[in-house]
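BUG-120 | component: ligand-complex export | severity: low

The export step for zinc ion jobs runs without errors, but we want the raw record kept on the ticket for reference. Input record follows.
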Amino acid sequence: MSATKIIAYISAAFLIFFGFLFIYATFSPRGQIGWLIIGLISVIAGFVLIFWAGRKPAVAADQNVTVKIDLPGNVSMDTMKCKSCGGVLSPENISLVAGAPVVTCPYCKTTYQLTEEPKW
Ligand SMILES: [Zn+2]
């Protein structure tokens, strides 16, 4: 429930409550006919407010902002680590062999093919 709705419902509750008080006071010995009109308007305004708040769709529900950030296929080179020894690899350690990227670790000299989704 949004804040606007809560305010609307609280305002409506007050309007209806005081509206009924005015209507009730109209029939008291010192009551005035004018109070009945004020009371009725207040009660009607309260119900209109509830009706309006109930019908108005929540703004937050409509704004389902799904920001999808597509990560580039190539993982940032400075975060790459060797599968075998965990040594940090630089772009110079990657070479294309038969069209496939191959990593040659400068620390442990391990050579392996670079997969599309590295798990290191
Ligand atoms: Zn290594």
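Assignee comment: Attached the raw record above. The chain has three helices and three strands.
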